[in-house]
Amino acid sequence: MKSIVEGVLKFQQDAFPGLSGLFKQLATTQNPSALFITCSDSRVVPELLTQQDPGDIFVIRNAGNIVPSYSSEPGGVTATVEYAVAVLGVTDIVVCGHSDCGAMTAISTCKCLDHLPAVAGWLRHADAAKAVNASRNHISPAARLSSMVRENVIAQLANIKTHPSVALALEQGRLSLHGWVYDIESGAIVALDGVSNTFVSLAEFPETVATQAKRSALAA
Amino acid sequence: MKSIVEGVLKFQQDAFPGLSGLFKQLATTQNPSALFITCSDSRVVPELLTQQDPGDIFVIRNAGNIVPSYSSEPGGVTATVEYAVAVLGVTDIVVCGHSDCGAMTAISTCKCLDHLPAVAGWLRHADAAKAVNASRNHISPAARLSSMVRENVIAQLANIKTHPSVALALEQGRLSLHGWVYDIESGAIVALDGVSNTFVSLAEFPETVATQAKRSALAA
Amino acid sequence: MKSIVEGVLKFQQDAFPGLSGLFKQLATTQNPSALFITCSDSRVVPELLTQQDPGDIFVIRNAGNIVPSYSSEPGGVTATVEYAVAVLGVTDIVVCGHSDCGAMTAISTCKCLDHLPAVAGWLRHADAAKAVNASRNHISPAARLSSMVRENVIAQLANIKTHPSVALALEQGRLSLHGWVYDIESGAIVALDGVSNTFVSLAEFPETVATQAKRSALAA
Amino acid sequence: MKSIVEGVLKFQQDAFPGLSGLFKQLATTQNPSALFITCSDSRVVPELLTQQDPGDIFVIRNAGNIVPSYSSEPGGVTATVEYAVAVLGVTDIVVCGHSDCGAMTAISTCKCLDHLPAVAGWLRHADAAKAVNASRNHISPAARLSSMVRENVIAQLANIKTHPSVALALEQGRLSLHGWVYDIESGAIVALDGVSNTFVSLAEFPETVATQAKRSALAA
């Protein structure tokens, strides 16, 4: 904890002065353009890997970058998605998985989670991805994990489409969904291409989108 | 979205090279010392304000930095807390609220949330703070909001103590809880002092702790 | 009730003899090719309107032909979908709405449902459709209801895709999803065309499909 | 799917013309006298076995003809029962099990359902019947299954009495409950006699009722 508190003091002395103008502007308002949903993993720092400033992205972080599908008993992710889309009006949502994910490893290796009942329950929101991934042949455990991470991103995008605020924004052509996977070791990102249903390099195809607004809405 | 994708390219070209040694070490392991729970708000960047590197802090972010109390139907926050404490073995948990919080403003001003049913449901996990705050006289709406933000941090610390993994770790003397409030405009942080039950400046009292491990455990 | 019991006796005396061979075959096995999900409404008789015999279609009926999205607390519809897809191996699922639907009328007219708490809770699974439909201009209440019925079919198809058994079967190219709306007065059926995202006459376009198996799977 | 779509065309050409007068009357209203709750099983066609016309019976169908008891988290069956009783005012509810039921076979043979988590969860609503049936000696697996099917009907009738709308209608003397078991091979139906608590032939005792309205209410 000592390094964290020392970090705060360092932030206040060294980093804050250069940002004080920005923070003054932001003191009573925020206007982020995107909702970025990623893992709680300490190695995935969304503002770092997208080089965004304070005020730029609204962030949800939980174990496994999971978005439960909409239900009559909504929890924190659903509430936060609703706030981001219906109140803040973000135009893009990124669901970003990553390499070496502990949650996806637990699923991919059928780890016994009896001693972690809350984790086990939470990971059931990835059951669709688990079923798809288990149906395939993988050449190695590493390939199985890598595929699981990608399928999980696809499944969470399916889940998020059941949210009313998201369905409405897609219908009205004011929201796009993005599915990313970040590789910790190399810093590379692949993005889901909704047309081919495959992941491609974001650096090579920077305009890749998982789900566009509806055609009818776009035409309107 | 364009600036975010451009940010990724900038990260890969400019920032990653200097961090590649660290990321290589982190490729297959993480060992964060703390769980940092804060708001999805775009202006609150935990790694920036604590000056921590990738790999240092495990992060939960949702609207209102809320931790539901433990129940038979655990959701994502509970699962992520369980993972952080029981698997990663973090030694500190920080619940960090902030000034100008949209969620706390909604509660503090009794805003009608009929059009945001998921948000309304989620904020019920702050009902204890709402009741306490509503029972007091406040000299202004700003004072009411400021007090609400602080009471919410206190209420979420009460909630997190109902989690089995947290209760066990506190009992065994291997976990401390911290309650912070971050002021966006000034960069200042106040911390809950568990002895006096008041918030004090973290810069002046850097060792302030909200809840220590049990004395018996510490003595052991 | 008298007419129902008399109907049973009539069935046993008049209808059963001609079907006894079929029922003998079916005594210990069923092999339906499709799961047909429709409303509890007394006017929508799935076996009549598809002219199917006993043994041909597996049927779910509830108020509003609703399929909750997958969650960690699955109910009866989810369990029955799982059984149909994973055990019986149906190759097609039809979600069939209908004209003059009481549930959709309640949503479309913003009827107060305070006295029907279970109905109100259940209809939240149509919130995505409600949000989309409310965002549009409709030339009349009848047009609003008609559109609501169609949007509800679309939303329930989005919901069913979050079910693991369905995601897997789509991935493996052994399941197609169909979205129908049945008009009670005329007997006509329109079907959702997944390509144009519009409803077309089933009589004119009998091969219309809402969601095909994945391209990759089909190619395999 | 081809035969189903062909069936629709056949319905529209052959069957609909003779029913067009009835369907015209039904276009904007329904007035069913009974709620019929039965299994999704493809061999159990309620309108066929009771020889009822469109408009006559309101139907719930799910795996195992299950009615969860009332809870604070009502699902689709509860909502549909509420709608049938409180809005449509049906005077009779039939819970109809059947021979060779896959759901009851799974319970009766203690089948492992680990690969069908939603089914396993759903069948817990038959735990009372399972416990009663397991406490008895049965002369054969067939006898155990047959008994399980009957006990399940009894348990679901107990469950439905916990619903507020049903409890109120029984209290006011405007609703009767019926428990049936349908034999696929023979077409025979046995009905639960609430006085002797045994199942008797519906053909011989056509006025058999499982639960009558309360005496006081009937006298009123």
From TrEMBL, chains A, B, C, D:
Keywords: Lyase, Metal-binding, Zinc. GO terms for biological process: carbon utilization. Binds 1 zinc ion per subunit. Its cofactor is Zn(2+). GO terms for molecular function: carbonate dehydratase activity; zinc ion binding. It is an enzyme of class 4 (lyase). Reversible hydration of carbon dioxide. This is Carbonic anhydrase.
